[in-house]
Structure formats: structure tokens, C-alpha cells
Class V chitinase (Spinacia oleracea), 381 residues
Amino acid sequence: MINHINSKLTHHYISMASFKSSISLIVLISLLHFEFSSAVKGGYWTPDNGMEASDIDSTLFTHLFCAFANFDKQTNQITVPSGCDTFPQAIRGKNSAVKAILSIGGGTVPSTDFNTMASQPSSRKAFIDSSISLAISNGYDGLDLDWEQQTQPDEMNNMATLLNEWRAAINSNGQSLILTAALHYSPIVSQAVTFPAQAISDNLDWVNVMAYDFWAPGWPGPDPILARPHASLNDPTSGNPSGSSGISAWINAGVPANKLVLGVPYYGHAWKLADANNNGILAPVVATNGQDVSFDPFGNEETPTYKQIKSLIPQNTYDDTYVTNYFSSGTTWVAYDDTDSISRKVDYAKTTGLLGYFAWRIDQDQDNWALSTLASQRWGA
């Protein structure tokens, strides 16, 4: 179509009005092309992790998220922690094209706090206006909603209203802010509680699908208590969560594949085996009152980072059925993503038509950015 327009401009006289209309059409086509063809190579960073934002190798990413801004439960105004206020400028030192997105909320914010805010027009407006103003004044390219742990239908209804009004406010403001959300691995929380897929599809640029933390020591789960990979791409057992089953559920719910971004974790979960010699996936583990409490060599750390894991245990086993790496040392068993599983997950995201991938959290990568480099190269330009 663009070549046709250019041909018309070359060989025919057209009015100025027609010329402007043609240019507008070209711009519209370009914007649509950007929305649906520009991949997301994303990652979350927190200001309290010991890594300066300026030390991030932002050339490996297209979008970087600063986590987390919070909101005052009384005024519903957004507040930004130190570090997030200068985040956009810091990450653009190495890559001027990288997009900075301010993430609001996080797993420590009760869902009831978000729901109370989203349940009233006045509090929604205060939240929305504050977020837009803060993003613009601090140089952000977009906003990310991290509202987790929903369990009630009214939470989903109020989320839909919030997203509708948030997108409308961004559009009316004349800004081209990106609007995303980090959401549960599946749109189905329970038979009675499902995410508002239509509002999500209509208003978000994409969803960061949190395809991890399916299992963890001490969390409720099926008996007997077994060592399970917490972020497997596949699970051969019917009904068990996995990254691919979650993505399929989102697509079946009506959110297009090109509005979904697959989450990968840069950390593992550690379990204590009942028998050091029985150390494969689904090996029995020891639990005391539902809690494992001793995870040497990580100093009782249940969620060791990739950096910690690789510094202590360089060798591991890769399981292609689940798409996970794991290792055991004595009675300690840890499942995590290494280069094998990251490669498979990025390949899956690209061949399935997803918009891209994101990592939680990028500071947990090795000092040489091993996982982030591999993921970026695997996806390609």
C-alpha cells in the first residue's frame, strides 16, 4: 500500500488534503507495524538489589521495568522509591532506544488494596492521573500494573474498569505511554474467578505472563510432597500448571498471542530431599509443618539466585520433558532455568507467535549477563 501511495505521489498531481491523508495513512500503518512486530526483550530491576541501574547492560533489552512504585491507600497517589526516579536516564546511557516502564504494586501489596482503589470512580481517577503524571515527569515510556493474588470475581470486574479508564485517560492525555500488566500464568484462577480477558486485550499493549512459582517449599500442594520444578514450560501430568498451558489458556480466553510475553525466572527454589540418592524430579522431600527450613549450601535460602547457584553448583541436569534444569547436592535439590531451558523457552515464545519474553529479576543473572545475552541472541533482532 505504501508503494502504491508513493507511486501516486510521483506520477499524479494530488491535492494537499489528499497528500496529508496519505501521510496519515503511512503513519498509521507504521504504528500498527510497531505494535505487532516489535519484540519485547524485557527485564525487571529493583532499586534495593545492590546493582546500580547504570550498570545494567541495557543493550540486551528493549524494555526495562523499575519495580516497584506504590500507592498511598488513603490518597491513591503513586510514590516512587529512590532509584526509580532516575531509572530512565540511567538505563539509556548504554542504549538510548531502550524503553523504561514504571511497575506499580508487586507481590507484597495485598490484592484488597488494589481492589479498594479500583472499586470507586474517585480513587481510580486519583490513581490513574497520578500514575500518568509521574511517568511523564520522570521520563518513563510506560506503566505496568502488578496486581497479584486475586481470588474474588469483584476484583476482576474492578480491574476491567480500571484498565478501561486508564487507557482512555492515556489516550485523552495525548501521550503515547505503553500500558502493560504482570499477571498470573493463567487467566483462570478458579472456576468462579477469571481475568477480564476482553478488557486486557482491548487496553493493554501486552501482558507479562508470570510463568513461574507454580510450586515452592511450604506452599500448599498435592500429597505426597515432591520436588517439583517451579517454572517448567511443560508438565506431563494432566492438570498441573506449566508455562505452555498458561499461555494456551490466555490465548483461548481471547488475548492474542502477540499481546503475551513469557516470563522466565532468574532464580530457583530449593527443596530438602528425603533421600539423597533419590534425587530426580518428583523425588520425595522432607517437610516440617509444611515448611522446609534447611537448604545448605545456600545458608537456608529457599530461593537462591542464578548467580548464587552457578557460583556453587556449576553442573546440573537438564530435563527436556519439563524444560527445566535441576541439581542435587546431598539432600538439597534445586530446580531453576539455565541456558538449556532459557533457550527452549525463548524458542517456544517466538515460534508460538508471542511478543517476547521478560526476566524476573535481571540482577540475579551472572556478572557476565549469561542468561540475558543468550535470550537476546536466541530471539534475534
